[in-house]
Amino acid sequence: MKIIECPPRDRWESLLRRPVKTVADIEETVLRVFNAVRAEGDQAIRGFTREFDGVTLDDFGLTDEEIREASANVAPALRQAIGQARSNIEKFHSAQRSDKVQVETMPGVSCWQEKRPIEKVGLYIPGGSAPLFSTILMLAVPAAIAGCREVVLCSPPDKEGKLHPAIIDTAAQCGIRNIYKVGGIQAIAAMTFGTAGIPKVYKIFGPGNQYVTVAKQLATAYDVAIDMPAGPSELLIAADESANPAFVAADLLSQAEHGPDSQVILVSTSTGLLNKVSEEVQRQMRYLPRADLATRAMAHSRFICVPDDETAVELVNAYAPEHYIICCERESYYLEHIRNAGSVFVGNFTPVSAGDYASGTNHTLPTNGYARQYSGVNLDSFMKSITFQKITAHGIRDLGPAIETMAEEEGLLAHKNSVRVRLDALKAGSN
Amino acid sequence: MKIIECPPRDRWESLLRRPVKTVADIEETVLRVFNAVRAEGDQAIRGFTREFDGVTLDDFGLTDEEIREASANVAPALRQAIGQARSNIEKFHSAQRSDKVQVETMPGVSCWQEKRPIEKVGLYIPGGSAPLFSTILMLAVPAAIAGCREVVLCSPPDKEGKLHPAIIDTAAQCGIRNIYKVGGIQAIAAMTFGTAGIPKVYKIFGPGNQYVTVAKQLATAYDVAIDMPAGPSELLIAADESANPAFVAADLLSQAEHGPDSQVILVSTSTGLLNKVSEEVQRQMRYLPRADLATRAMAHSRFICVPDDETAVELVNAYAPEHYIICCERESYYLEHIRNAGSVFVGNFTPVSAGDYASGTNHTLPTNGYARQYSGVNLDSFMKSITFQKITAHGIRDLGPAIETMAEEEGLLAHKNSVRVRLDALKAGSN
Predict the structure, then answer these.
(1) pLDDT digits (tens, 9 = 90+) for A223-237
(2) How far apart are CA A160 and CA A284, in angstroms?
(3) Which helix (H) or strand (E) holds A219?
(4) How far apart are CA B346 and CA B331, in angstroms?
(5) Can you say whether residue B223 is alpha, beta or left, with left for phi > 0 and alpha for psi between -120 and 50 degrees?
(6) What is the pTM for the complete model shown?
(7) How far is A51 from chain B (nearest CA, A)?
């Protein structure tokens, strides 16, 4: 690992730069699939499932038998682990419920804000080598707490036309009835337009490869909302002499194994710590089955030495990491000054994998610097807030003239008139 | 006004359909401006200001003198009205502050969620005939409460290269220092990329014409967030015999005067009320200076008669109106069953214009049916939430095995190892 010593501030931007996405060649494929699904519905989906997933399916839904079979095929230890994670995620996301906000801004002028669930949401769960049942927990649990009426889950079938039992079982445990064996662009298109077999939704959640990412972006052009824009996963660790180099190395590697485009950054005030972590990375890497992926990600990792904690904190905020581990003596200083981060892991015994699976926080987080302006998925992601107001005769008498003055100045005389007719009626009534 | 009597459900979709946006021809212009601003910065902005606004400006910023002059040129009655509105908006948006959410999901596993301001936000305020100082209040007040560090405001100059005094004065009263005389696509591009003269921001708020709308959409491709997608303004009124026909007519007309593409819908269980409102609309229209706009919007308004309150409520939720007035006997029934709406106005003395200007609620609201999945602008629009977790040695001992089991099943062995190294160290330490 090459250590970068005290980079000057004007080098930060290039040092912290993320790889640029190139999506132009993907967009054409995504458009083609969207147009076909929009025009031909399920028939198009069958075609793309054959083309992209290499399997012929007549029906995308699951039978009751498939669900029963799945639950029998999940090892009890795994079921128990998933149950533990679900319980923690439920606790943390239930605590995020918020009360109605109500204020009388003036006598007779009541304003309030209430949240309501988004009625129809779609969850996309990628397929591939790893069955991401953990992502189902992260999306289905808050959707259920929010009270979403209709939760649709799409996940690509394997070559036998099946879903992994842990996917089916976890979804069923979370109360999802609408599970479909449809993946990739065609799944996003199906949830965007709706087909005879798959319902249209109002908001789509979940990770995916570049095709899915571009498809979700295109879905927003058809009035569907998405959880957030996506990019490769990231971890930044701020650590000093109080950190355990073996733990830090293990966390960096857990990030790196996500793939060669994973971003891994270690920031420290201690060159000693940076060197020790570097050695530990080499040592631990040998035992990893996905070492090839990790090696490629570690190759463009950045180990940065900074002169003091203040500089470290500024650098972290400039990067706005998705995952941020703090293992520093002055922990509270680091915590207090966080301005931009997705999820923060504090202290030596808090690996990112805890939040990935089971501590209770959500693992669907803003990447690509989006932590500057986006929240990770949370209970509010499945709700929208509605405002209300009720004004009494007394209230409009007091507030009305201000509205009239402002409306007149903005040249909106029918707005003014809507107050005037009420004030006139009240005047007539009081005579 | 043509009254539609008890339309069958299978006609609702076509009856409630909004006009389709056609943006293809606009996109080319927007792309051209974005590319030029990105490459040439302020020089490009000067060129487009000449081209689109017909005025030559060397400097886009305001001088202290311009700010002083503006405050002297706003009538005291208007200043007072704006002050009243600001105070109400401040009260309602301050009440939306939320506490840190903290939970121990298991012994030794602490999770919490905190909100932080988005550091840099941009507010776009359209120019044209009406100076929308009310929109400044709606955006700048919550930005200040949230604690956004840098608030940038752009608004197009008039032919003399000036902004309306009420725009300048309201912005200054709200504490905004960065006010720029730049409008349209080039303003959105400037805040997206940043130029020598105008800072880049992380999220852009505010209304605008079709060009601004498409420009904001394009900005999201360059990692900037926006408040919400936009469409023409809308009002749906549910009213029965308990409503005052003159008030209802005045509210419909206040919506209609926004422009010919404004959406106006009246739903009632009473044909009598529908007829009376129709007559009142004709009567009041005569006195409106913007009658031409209102007439065109009213021409495609829909007066719908429904058999009962239950059907009315279902129809409202199917439409998901931006503004929704309830003037019905069974007010609480209507309130209880709202699932999709932007802002709701309750009772005979609550015109939409109250919320447009001064009651305290926000007037930046989801149109185009987006109330199904988007909130209107509120305090949280200027913040993002960050999650945290801290696990003790005891906590990871208890939770660790579940993480290991799940990570192994997902094939992520470096994730498993990041727990393993900690559990091993604890075991070694306790021996």
Answers:
(1) 999 999 988 899 999
(2) 36
(3) helix A210-219
(4) 8
(5) left
(6) 0.96
(7) 26
Mean pLDDT across chain B: 94
* pLDDT above 80 for B24: no
DSSP state of A267: E
**Strands (E) located in B108-239:** 109-117, 120-124, 150-154, 178-180, 203-205, 225-226, 234-239
DSSP per-residue codes, A93-125: HHTT--PPEEEEEETTEEEEEEEEE-SEEEEE-
ipTM: 0.96
- Residues A260-313 have pLDDT tens digits of 888 999 999 999 999 999 999 999 988 887 777 778 888 889 999 999 999 999
| Shortest CA distance from B74: residue in chain A | A409
Instruction: Report the C-alpha dihedral over residues B300, B305, B308, B309, rounded to 10 degrees.
Output: 30
**Nearest CA to A1 among A347, A245, A207, A181?**
A245
Q: Which residues pair with B253 in a beta bridge?
A: none
Catalytic, B323? Answer: yes
pLDDT score, position B32: 96
Confidence band, pLDDT 50/70/90 cuts, at residue A93:
very high
Please state at what angle helix A165-173 crosses helix A64-72, rounded to 10 degrees: 110
| pLDDT for the residue numbered B130 | 77
pLDDT at B21: 67
Residue A403 has its nearest CB partner, among B358, B376, B422, at: B358
Asked if A414's CB is within 8 angstroms of B294's CB, the reply is: yes
Query: Where do the domains of chain A lie, and which CATH numbers do they carry?
Result: 3-20+232-350 (3.40.50.1980), 23-230 (3.40.50.1980), 393-430 (no CATH)
Kindly list the distances between the CA atom of residue B65 and the CA atoms of B168, B171, B177, in Å, as whole numbers in the listed order.
Answer: 11, 15, 13
**Residue B143 to chain A, least CA–CA distance (Å):** 13
Testing the interface with B: which of A237, A295, A389 to mutate, by most B Cβ within 10 A?
A: A389
B384-399 confidence digits (pLDDT tens)? 999 999 999 999 999 9
Query: To the nearest whole angstrom, how far is the Cα of B58 from the nearest Cα of chain A?
Result: 28
B378 chain-A contacts, CB cut-off 8 A: 113, 385, 387
Report the residue of chain B nearest A389, measured CA to CA. B345
